[in-house]
Amino acid sequence: MKTDTELPKQESLNFSQYKYFFDHSNDLTCIANTEGYFEIISPNFSKLLGYNEPDLLNKKFLEFIHPDDLNPTLREIDKLKKGTTTINFINRYRKNDGSYLWLEWSSTPDTSTGKIYAIARDISNRKKNEEIIRQKSEELVKTNNELEQFVYILSHEFINPVQDISEYTNELKIKFSDTVNDEAKAIIQKLIDKKNKMETMTNSLLFLTRIGKKLIVTSIDCNMLLKEITTELKDFILATHTEITSTLLPIIKGDEKEIKMLFEILIKYAIKFNRKNINPVIHISTEEKEDEFLFIFKNNGIGIDNKYFDSLFLVFNPTNAEAALPESDFGFIISKKIVETHKGKIWVESKSNEGSIFYFTIAKNIVE
Fold this sequence. Notes:
The chain folds into 3 domains: 6-122, Beta-Lactamase (2-Layer Sandwich), CATH 3.30.450.20; 126-210; 214-368, Heat Shock Protein 90. Helix 9 (256-272) runs antiparallel to helix 10 (331-341). Helices cover 46% and strands 22% of the residues. It has helices spanning 6-24, 43-49, 53-58, 70-81, 124-176, 182-210, 222-232, 234-239, 256-272, 331-341, and strands at 28-33, 38-41, 86-94, 100-110, 115-122, 217-221, 243-246, 251-255, 281-288, 292-299, 346-350, 356-363. It has 10 helices and 12 strands. It is α+β, with helices and mostly antiparallel strands.
């Protein structure tokens, strides 16, 4: 049992240990009261704020707080008076030179004494970096909007000359088909083919700029959607002897127009780029996950060399350049953007001349 003479020594030792910790903390530590005054402050208060200790102790700490942060600070003090601990509360303190520090507070009240034990950390650099990131993000959004507007205008401007080329080439074909030789006919056909590709690219580019802009989320029965697509592509499917099968597909939430485009891109790719003398076969299945649906589009087409996987979903990729895929410029990037708009991912497994399996996920909840 401790004697009376031992107790003051022990108390002195405890205070000495506490004072050493208090004075050497890298943070700002203090004891304040619910009346709005500091009672004890660590040396870092004077060091970081630029005031001497009496200036900080003799004025209410509310006098140092940024005007915009005054009301939130008063609300936080009311919570402390009721015994609620404060964690990660942020406000700004005015320095002696007139500038402000951002401080993040953690405070514990003692309702029996009215004292507040608090630790603050200078997060000014963090807030500065956050502001830089915010500004850069705003600049990036602005740049993207300007770029999309430019692409939209450019695409529209592209349409008129493409239509003119279409009219001229068709006129050449009609008027001179009986008078020109086979070489001239071949050149005319090449013009028509190039014109068709330009139209496809222009329309795809316009669609790409609109994806996700005005998302209309509805319930989509993927079985009905697939039936609608196969009906619209009936002539193409019959002409190519394509077989399309599927398991029972789910009802999902999403933008029906965009999901339909996604299905069409993958189906058309599989049909157009089938292996020679082998009828196209496409099988669609799904797997339900906790937060998403996984769609699997399997085909027996020409396949894709794995060296192209990384660039497949880029705007301009070298995939099967000899075949001049109409989707190679925009189809897959449209697919990727649609999937990402629906909070999913898309990837492919494939080998040349062995077909491809496209996987993509659609989140069950795409609304923020």
